Amino acid sequence: MSEATVALPPAEEVRLLDVNAVARFLSCSARHVYRLADSGRMPRPQKLGALVRWDRIELEKWLADDCPVCR
User: Fold this and answer.
1) What is the structure's pLDDT at 1?
2) Angle at CA 10, nearest 5°, toward 20 and 22?
3) DSSP state string for 6-31
4) How far apart are the first and last CA of the chain?
5) Mind listing the pLDDT tens digit for each residue in 7-64?
């Protein structure tokens, strides 16, 4: 049985990503995304009430810059 690859919607459609979308984007687990954010090794999320979202453009810039520490 093969796993289907889930592609993210185009950037012009979705700007803020939830933890599961970020995990797919980075090819890691949701828990690892939270660990990276909590330790300052990736851009911090934006909190919108109870929601936690990451800016897709910030993440793309962070990846393009070879993932520098964000603290």
Assistant:
1) 47
2) 20
3) PPPPPTTT--EE-HHHHHHHHTS-HH
4) 42
5) 666 666 789 999 999 999 999 999 999 999 999 999 999 999 999 999 999 999 999 9
Length of the chain equals 71
> pTM of the predicted model, to two decimals?
0.80
Residue 61: the pLDDT is 95
CB 14 within 8 A of CB 56: yes
Please state, in angstroms and rounded to a whole number, the distance separating the CA atoms of residues 51 and 60: 21
Please tell me whether residue 48 adopts helix, strand or coil conformation: strand
Buried b (16+ CB within 10 A) or exposed e, 23-35: bbbeeeeeeebbe
Q: Which two tokens mark 4? A: 């289907």
